[in-house]
Every structure is written in structure tokens, then in C-alpha cells.
Amino acid sequence: MKDFLDTILNIVFPVNCISCKEKGSLLCIKCLASSPEAERESALWIFPLFDYRHPPLKKAIWLLKYKGKRKLADIFAEVMYARILEELADLSMMENFREPVLIPIPLAPKRYRERGFNQATLLCKALMELDKNENFKLEKNILIKPKDTEHQARIEDRSKRLKNIIGSFLVKNPQTIKDKNIILIDDVTTTGATLAEAKKTLKSAGARKVIAFTVAH
Ligand SMILES: [Zn+2]
Predict the structure, then answer these.
(1) Nearby residues for ligand 1 (ion, Cβ within 5 Å)
(2) What integer is the mean pLDDT of 66-71?
């Protein structure tokens, strides 16, 4: 039904790829897959896919987050899914990283109300659709961000950014993630401070090992 509606909508309101102008999707899978890889340094447990400075990618992420172009999450997830499986093949063997649980980086309540959705949760749901419960589970209400904090991107000073994020996450029902391997999902990582704080919170709640995937860095 969803596909049928999409087809109809595409006939009535055709969209074009912001990069190659091809009809069908706001960013086509070809243009996404050929985007420059993230190459700036990030922590070893963080796996960003693409370079955020690449204009079509930056625009696509903006369209998803601020314009609610949710279908972009499906396209990002396609590339992310392949990458996760690649890494899992190694990690399950080398680090006994098995039966992982996907956890989206949560939004604070105010931001969630403003936006009406969490882009990281949309990515997780799209990943689950591709995975069909083969490799991982989704826990979308375990890690929460109970208080409204200032928007990280608006704070220029690095130490203030860190202070802003420290203690901002909480784990509901820690028994759900006890001794579990966790894959954190987010759209963008900048300094890695948000992911690091989420990892710390999950670890102190009993998680075994935590890694993260993001669309861009
Ligand atoms: Zn394209």
C-alpha cells in the first residue's frame, strides 16, 4: 500500500534527484553511493558513511531533518545497512559482537514536538525493514533524553558543547540492554560528543559493547 501510494504521488508530484536531476527520488541511490566517504578522523567505534561537506548530502540531510522528507531515510538506510553488515561480519568474529540492538540517538521532548519525528528513529525503522529481524532488534524507547538542552550546533565553544550534553541521556529499563551489544544510529556526528555521552550512559547501565553508525561526518 505504501509503495502504491508512493508511485501515485510520484506521478502526480514527481521529484528529482538534487544531484543528477534524475526523476524518482530527492537523492538517488547512485548519487548517494558515489558521495565522498567520511575521512576526517573519528573514534574507532564510530562508523560515519559520508563526508558531510559534500553539498548534495548536506542538503539531503537538511531536507530529511527540517523539511520532513522522510523517504530520504529509506535511501540512507540502504547504504547504511550494507555497511553495518560488512562491519558485523568482522565484529561478531573478532569481538564476539553478536545479536546487536539498534538504538536511535533520542531527541529532547521539545525538539521532538517541534519536528514530529526523530530522524534517527526513521533510519532505524528503515534498517529494520531491510533486515527483517535477521541480524538485529530495535529498541527505540530505551535511551531517552528527558530534558531540553540547547542545540549542540548552536554552541561554538567545544567545552561548552561537552558540558551541554553531559548527563543529558537516561536509560529506561536497563535490564533490556544488560550485557547486550548496541549499535547507536544517528544522522550526523560532528565532534562525536553526543555519541560518546550516549555510549557512556548505556555502558554504565550495563550494555556490553557499543558502536555507532551515522550517515555523515
Ligand atoms: Zn542522482
Answers:
(1) 17, 19-20, 22, 28, 31
(2) 94
